Amino acid sequence: MKRFVLACLLVGVTLSAQAANDEDGWQILQKAAVAARALSYQGIFVCQSGQNTKSVQIKHYFDGQNEFGHNVVLDGSPREVLSQGGDLVIYNQKNEKIVIEKRRGQNMFPAILPTNLDLVKASYSVRTGDTERVANREALILFLEPKDNLRYSYRFWIDKEYGLILKSVMFNGRNQMMDSIAFNQLNLLNTVDLDWFKPRIDSKKSYVMEDEVPTKADNNVSPHWTLKELPAGYRKVDQMIRMVHGKSFPVTHVIFSDGLASVSLFIEPIAKGVKPRSGNSVVGNTSFYSSVAGYLQITALGEVPEATVAQIANAVVFIK
Amino acid sequence: MTEQISALADDEIALKDAEHLIAAMQTNGHAAEVWGRYHLIGDVMRGTATLSPGFKQNLMHKIELEPTVLAPNAGWMNQAQTHQQSAEITSKTPVTWSIAASFAAVMVVGWMLLQTQVTDTMAPVVVAQAVVTKQAPALPIEAEQAIPDDYLMAHRASAPTASSYYIQSASYSE
Among A179, A248, A267, which would you mutate to test the B interface (most chain B Cβ atoms within 10 Å of its Cβ)? Predict the structure, then answer.
């Protein structure tokens, strides 16, 4: 009996230690999400996706109310991203012109985690690991592992002093690296001026605004389709009507997210004379699935496993 | 003017007194639109909707199911042509030839009819197929493996990953 009580006690202690570890892990991630937005810093990070690698110089400033960011791509074709809060302006060299693009920004490194982690907590578990040096700084490794096979896993290296994410790597189910971003140089920014918050204008080039792809928010329930059960943990976060290049009529674009990964679902009627498409593939970190539901062409893609895009595409039900 | 059109729509003005209104509606687009709208309002208020719900959808669906059978028309056209040709032949040739030609023409026409009948008997098969596959669109489904670039760009513009701000898809012209 004594032994049994002892065993119970031990199990209890281990479990609560595990829970404390989890809770600590989530707190560290929460702090990282806030630190990326509320600290002022500058440095260089390297971003790797598939065969592509780009170094990026970053400056981020928070004046207590607003965030200002200036990211310059140092390799290959010149590209600059200026951000103020969630509004982005991208200066992108295309041939002899600089094309100015406007975007909504949300998860720019190192602010890749949402400040509200509830959705992430529902689908992933967290585990703390060893300490490692990244960009000449001490970092704690955190493993963010999916609770099912509908999403990829992540490994984060968190700066022990600043709380910032220094390095983030995404792995697929076979533990192959899909995507990685890592600082190789980082300093806190001790400045209050914003002289640097402007693009590097090249007076010899002509600057043009991008042909904006018309999109509009779509809150209407379609009479032609509905969504049945979505894969666990994924929520609809946005729906819009947009023009897709090469299509003469607008396409419905629905975005789903589990808090970290996103999937785009495109729904459009199959025009007369257009061949319906069906297929699936994985290219780099992106999975793709297309199918036909009644008279609708369904296309789903995202940085998630194949099963997830397939389930989302198959959740579309054509209403007769 | 619009009040008068409204009154006419409600039968409050006699038709013989409304000649100027009818003339106006024929020439003036706005007046015609008002006339149409008052009738629509009237129909809705009386609850006498003329079309069933989902009328357009059902109609388009039924049109989609209709098979396109071109063969009978082509058959009749050929038949008419054969008659014309045989008439030309009789005017130029001796009687015996014309008998032979007529016989040949009858043969051709008979063969044509036979063909047409064959096509006619084929038609129900086509209809049956169309009914069975009513969910699938008319064209065969094309297999695809590559991610269509336009969709990938739309995805990256609206749901970017941390690296897609800096690394574009391969076909993005730099």
Answer: A179
Residue B92 located in a structural domain: yes
Q: Which ipTM did the prediction report?
A: 0.88
Partners of B139 on chain A (C-beta within 8 Å) are 273-276
Residue B81 shares a structural domain with residue B123: yes
Subunit contact A292:B136, Cβ cutoff 8 A = yes
Q: Determine the 3-state secondary structure of A21 from DSSP.
A: helix
Q: How many domains does chain B have?
A: 2
Angle of the B71-92 helix axis to the B95-132 helix axis, nearest 10: 180
Could you read off the pLDDT of B105-129 as tens digits, one per residue? Answer: 666 655 555 554 444 433 333 333 3
Is B104 within a domain? yes
A86-134 confidence digits (pLDDT tens): 889 999 888 888 888 888 778 899 999 999 999 999 999 999 999 999 9
Gap from B172 CA to chain A (nearest CA, Å): 9
CA–CA min distance B14, chain A (Å): 43
Name the DSSP class of A275. Answer: P
Cα–Cα distance measured from residue A139 to residue B6, given in angstroms and rounded to the nearest whole number: 79
Question: Cβ separation of A181 and B154 shorter than 8 Å?
Answer: no
End-to-end CA distance of chain B: 62
Query: Which domains are assigned to chain A?
Result: 16-209 (2.50.20.10), 215-318 (3.30.200.100)
